[in-house]
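Re: [help] complex structure
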Amino acid sequence: MKKHLSLSLLFFVLLFVCGCWDAQDIEDFNVPLIAAYDLAKENGKEVRVTVLYPDVAQRNKELIEPVEGKTVGDTRSKRGTRFPSTLLLGHIQLALYGEKLAYQGLYSFIDNYVRNPRIKKSLYMAVVKGGSYEFLKEVHQNNQYLGFELPKVFSSKKKNQFFAITTLYDFAHAVTTTGKNPVLPVLSADKRKNYKIDGTAIFKKDKMIAIADMNETVPLILLRGIERCCGHIPFIITKEGKQIDKGTVEIASQRKVYVERKGDKFIFHIKLKINGRLVEHYTSERFLIKDANYIREVEKAVEEQIKRDCQKLILKMKEEWGVDCIDISRFALAKWRRELEDVIEDEDFIRNADIKVDAKVNIDCWGSGS
Amino acid sequence: MDKDRFEITPKQLVFLVVGSEVATGILSLPRVLSAEAGHYAWLAVILGVTVPVLSIYFIVSLYKDFSEPDFIKVSQLLFGRFLGFVIVVLFSAYIVFFQSIVIRIFAEITKTFLLPRTPIFVILFLILFSVYYAVSKGAKTVARLNEILFWILLVDLLVIIILIPQGDWTAFLPLNELNVTGLLKGAKESFYSYAGIEFLFVAYVMVNRKEKILKAAFTGQLIVLLLYLMVVVVSLLILGPKSLQYLIWPVLDLLSVRQIAVLERLEIVFLVFWLGIGARPVLNLNLASAYSICRLLKLDNRKYYIWVTLLVVLAIYIIALIPDNLVVVFKLADFAGSMFLLISLGLPVLCHIVKFFRKGRIGYEKAS
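Output below.
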């Protein structure tokens, strides 16, 4: 009796095996690597979602499928009426957003990602100059493995270039946290249909307000104090207005922020501690091991250049953008949260703040050349 | 008591205490606490632990004077046959209700993250079937299972430490703007996560070395506190009190913010183990409930325990299916949290008061 009861219970359990509902054949799916979002051309109210995925049936081929709809979800159902495959969203590596859409605001277009537990919060986000569909179509003509290659630009921890790397988590966190604003890398296609990082999109919460070019991106990344940010910086040494040497240093930067207030005035002191190594210098007459001042001159040149670029960017941020894009407001909140919580995101706060930058460069590695 | 199946060691009690408390609550704890206490959520965790700590102390000090510290016998000695009977029935009903909520939340998480197309009633059935099987083997099996699952839980939760360097310490500041009302509300919200210690009412009699119970229970409670603190602190560091409000189960989202080499999706690794961990309180409290009912009705444990267990599991299954959606479930969880306060603190205090007034008239007291 007991045996029969156990067997019938086991049979009953097998009937309810979850696979009956959730089992799906992987061959029925396509796995998008890049999703691109734009305002639909016709009315600007609809969205166009383009996905780029490697085709399971045809090896070594990536497909690009644009679909327009009222919402992101609507494009998914419309996609079903136009294309045979079902998309498995869990492996999306990169989400691209067209420029116009970014100006309108991105939160409505990331909600489907935040809500879907299958989508990883570490997927990368970027803004595309112009339309993201046009970008994908154009660049893909030149690069048949774009879906695999482009996300790697962000994931392969670049150590020789400064640009923003922002994940879905970074973006959503900045948008939903008082005193924080996200930045996204900007992609564009050049004349030869190659992709390139072309600047940084400055956001006020989820709305893009401006694009900083690559020259502004370097101080922006340094000032934001992005964890262990590093890259190459060229330098020029001048004496009495005359260039005597030039070269490149590879640096890694750490930021410290201290904030004080005098009445209603908030004074931010940003200290950049920069360590690095000499990559190259052009003048062959000066020997580093004989000339004790030379490395100090390099350090000074880099220091001055960084300070100059940072001050220029801060001025632009205060006068033109009116938004804290260098992530310093949180330090004021950490001292006067209750008082500032409601006003810290007003333009006047950052415009009236006094922001001082100090950079200390230490080139402690010269390589093996003398 | 059937010693072969129901006797446990003080060391096993440590794991049972952790297992009875740490489950679904931990996944939403940072959100519910920071909703009320803001960036002082970590302080609400510490404040909230006073309830289970007092509860442990009251329960242990209540039982130590009885030669047979059995929940049913003590209840009937203190309150008389009828009232004692009612108290045990209410206690068992509370456990069934509470565990229905726990298992429903567990099933909801499983559905959201792992099995979106599988109906809730199927997920519940599969979980409760396993629960029934383990509980029917007795306290010893349940305790051993808790011990194994504890180590898995530890590894599973400790992985979130790797996120600390990415955190923003300013999220904890300033420390001088404490909102006491918010903090107290936050502490109240933590009760759902601390519920489960009332298991000690029933488990006390099962522990073989009674003099070590207090230490074991406090050790278990300390582990729970440290785990909760760690989760809340890391959540505040990575997400901050405001962002936390946008996520239903922030701890799971926390695990997906960073891609890890080899493992890639940390939350998937967590969820794989989660299937074992999440059902532990149901195991432990189901055991307590079935054992109490058997004792109350004077049924032979060897013959009827598995049938009573089956009935309890069935009751949990039916009640777990009642709420329409997650909003209702969370409201019920909130209510269950308040009930926890009544049962874990109110009941032992009441017992102490009655014991004080009836001193010398209770036949089973060691002292008398």
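The first strand of chain A starts at residue 29 and ends at 30.
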